[in-house]
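Hi there,

I know you've been waiting on this one. I reran it after we fixed the sequence typo, so this is the corrected version. Both the input and the resulting structure follow.
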Amino acid sequence: MQKQVWGSLAGMCTLALIFVCSTAASAQDEPKEKPPMYSYVSNWSIPRAQWAEMAKADAADQSILEKALADGTIIGYGSDTNLVHQADGPTHDDWWSAMSMAGVLNVLDKFYKSGASTSPALESATKHWDNIWVSHYYNWHSGSIKGAYTRVATYKLKADAPEDAVEKLSQHLLVPLMEKLLADGTIVEYEVDTQAIHSDAPGTFAVVFITPAADGLDKFNAALRTAGKLNPMNGPAFDSMVDFTPHRDYLARTTATYK
């Protein structure tokens, strides 16, 4: 999600304008909050000489993750390789998602007990950090995908944003756009996340989607521009609640499986 799209229109807008300008035909058509989906994301900065070993470590993790998917402990898992590197950022990440906190932590425990967390590739990491996210707005297509692209945009709400800002932004701006792209195959998964464990300051949220091919990124940007033209108050509405100063994007190549 780029500031030039959501924040290019001048001025501010109250939350009430979102309802006036929303594309939802009626209140009953609004996207509904779903049961919580938790995602454990483990980020690593791996020296380039160890990238091949990291790929081997990811392959070795498959048996634990496939079993957890098969028995219903998790609903999806995957790994990412960062495409746009920063001096202090990650090069790789591994993740899995479940419909309970217990689900993500039970899989983490299996990795600790298996010894996978002390593989040579992971021990070579110069930096490492974890996050646990929770989403109430998400959807996916079942199946496995390789060589896909994941786009993550992280934001922080302004101090005076409404308590339900993420909910309203999701219902009236983000989910309608994502559901359209999911339906036509441009993306295969999306989620709007907040931190279940506040590793960062409260108010942080992330918009995530996976597209199977690079042109999906262009299609997403085109759809976003079209949505802005059709509903010109959406940009100021987003801008009125979001502090763009800490905004960051993440683009990665992805291997993923969803149940």
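Quick highlight: The two ends are 27 Å apart (CA to CA).

Best,
R. S.
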